[in-house]
Amino acid sequence: SFIVSTILFLLVNGGLTIDCPNSPSQWCKSNEIAQACDVIEQCKTYVWEVHEDDNRVHLSIYYETLCPDCRQFITTQVWNAYQSIPDIVNITFVPYGNARELYRPETKLYQFYCQHGAEECYGNLIHVK
């Protein structure tokens, strides 16, 4: 009886609709969720990236634009490693940041707070472009 009711409900309502989760960390969990959040292209580019050259090691560096530790890591460790193996590695830099988001129901927008201030949030946006 429950199964029949569920099937009838799905047929009448055209299937289940997926709502976009409040947390951006969940937006690329599936194609359906990414579509509901209108971030398919971003997920394809930064999360589900398909590489043409499968013989290389693919490394993604998630960083904060104004973080002193991230800067030091990139300019020393990553740069030195890359100099040794440029022909076998693809590095993708992703401005991610240690941020928290707050959904504002009155504006239906998110407000972001970055660990190193508003300038870092702005820097992360610039680096995405």
Please provide a written account of the structure.
- The chain has 129 residues and is of the alpha+beta class.
- The protein folds into two domains: 18-48, no CATH class; 57-127, no CATH class.
- The chain is built from five helices and four strands.
- The protein has helices spanning 2-13, 31-36, 40-46, 68-84, 118-128; strands spanning 57-63, 89-95, 99-104, 109-114.
- The protein has a two-stranded parallel sheet. Strands 3-4 form a two-stranded antiparallel sheet.
- α4 (68-84) links the parallel β1 (57-63) and β2 (89-95).
- The chain is flat and about 60 Å long.
- The chain starts with a helix and ends with a helix.
- The model has no long low-confidence stretch (mean pLDDT 82).
- Residues 1-17 form the signal peptide.
- It holds the Pfam family SapA.
